[in-house]
Amino acid sequence: xxxxxxxxxxxxxxxxxxxxxxxxxxxxxxxxxxxxxxxxxxxxxxxxxxxxxxxxxxxxxxxxxxxxxxxxxxxxxxxxxxxxxxxxxxxxxxxxxxxxxxxxxxxxxxxxxxxxxxxxxxxxxxxxxxxxxxxxxxxxxxxxxxxxxxxxxxxxxxxxxxxxxxxxxxxxxxxxxxxxxxxxxxxxxxxxxxxxxxxxx
Amino acid sequence: xxxxxxxxxxxxxxxxxxxxxxxxxxxxxxxxxxxxxxxxxxxxxxxxxxxxxxxxxxxxxxxxxxxxxxxxxxxxxxxxxxxxxxxxxxxxxxxxxxxxxxxxxxxxxxxxxxxxxxxxxxxxxxxxxxxxxxxxxxxxxxxxxxxxxxxxxxxxxxxxxxxxxxxxxxxxxxxxxxxxxxxxxxxxxxxxxxxxxxxxx
DNA sequence: CTTGGCTGACCGACTGTTCGGTCATATATT
DNA sequence: AATATATGACCGAACAGTCGGTCAGCCAAG
Lengths: 201, 201
Known about the structure:
The structure is a homodimer.
Chain A: H1 8-25, H2 32-39, H3 43-49, H4 53-76, H5 82-99, H6 103-119, H7 127-148, H8 157-176, H9 181-197
Helix pairs in contact in A: 1-2, 1-6, 2-3, 4-5, 4-7, 5-7, 5-8, 7-8
Chain B binds a DNA duplex through residues 6-7, 10, 31-33, 36, 41-45, 47-48, 51-53.
C-alpha cells in the first residue's frame, strides 16, 4: 500500500516469491515463512515491506492486473482494424492468462474473495473490478468502431463485451484442469474463429 | 465417502449448512463450529457423518456437480433438434450456475483446489474433472448430430465444446462481481445469440 | 558511535479433531 | 405393564498443532 522507501527490488522479490508460494499452496495455506525463504530473506523482513498478508494479496492483484491492462492498452493503441484488433486482444489476453500458469490459481481465489467482499457490501477495495472494467471499456470501444466500419453486425455492446471477457476467463478455466498446451492452442484457434464469426454482419 | 447409515437427512443438513458457511467465509476460513451451529447440531456430531473437512468439500462438490449433470442429461434425452438442444443446454446451465448464487464461490475455490491437486500429480480424486467431462461429452454429441443434420457448420469438436463450457463458466465469472440479474439476462441473450451464430453453416 | 535494515525466536490466538461421557430409545425380561 | 439392560447417536470441553505478527537485539555502513 504505502510507497516503500527501502529497496524496491526487495519488495518485488517478495511479490514474486509470494506468487510462487500462494499458487502452490493456496491463499490461506500459503505461509509467510515460506515466502520469506523463497525470497531469500528473513520472515521479519517481509513485514518491513508489507504490513500484513492481506496487503500482499492486494499487491499481487495489482501486479497481475497491471500487466494485463498494460498489454491491452498497448494493443488498443496500435494501428489495426477493429476486427483484427479484437481478435488479437482476445487471443493475447487468453494466452497471457494461460501463461501466467500458476498465478491463475491465485487470481481465481482473489476473484472469489472480491465477490465475497462485494456481497458483504464492501464495494470499495476490489481493485479487480476497476481492472476488469478498464479492459471492458477497451472492448466496447473496439466493438463500436467495428460496427461503425461495418466490420461487425449491430449488437448489444454490453452483452458482447461480457461474452468477450467471459471467453478469456472461461477458456483458461477449462484448461486449469488440463494444461495440455497443444489442445489449448487448437481449441483457442477454433474458439476465436467461432467467436468472431458470431460478430460478422 | 462411506454411505452413512444413521440419519441421511442429517448428513444433508450438514451439507446445506456447510455450503452456507463456506460460501460466506471461504473454504479455509469457514469453521466446522459454525457449520454445526447452522445445522443445529453439536460440533462432534459433524464428525459422525464426515470424517474430515476435506470430506465435506468432496461431498459438496458431488452434490453440486450431480445437480448440473442430472439437468444436462435430462435435457439431452429430450426430443429436440441439435440447434435448440445446444442453445437450451447452454442457457440452462448458465442460469443454473448463476442461480446457485453463493455456491458459485465454493465451486470457484474447489476448482482451484482441483487444479492444484492435478499439478501435484494427483490426477485421481478430482471429481470435478469427471463431472465436467460428462457434460463435455454430451455437448460433443449434440455438435456432431448438428453437423450431421446440417444445422451447424463443420468444426473442430473439441475446440467448440471447450468454447461452449467456457461460455458457461466465463459468463458466470463475469457476474460474480456484479450480480445485477437484469444485466445478466440481457447479456445472456446477446451472448447466446452471438455464440449460436458462430456455429451456423 | 549511531543508524536502521534485517533477523528469527517467541507469543498468543485460532481451529480441526478427538474422546469420554450423557441420554433417548429399543429390546429383553419378569 | 413395568422394569432392567443395551445401544449408539450426540455432544462439547480439551488437546495439539499451526501460523500471522512482534520485538529485542545483531550487524554493516557511514
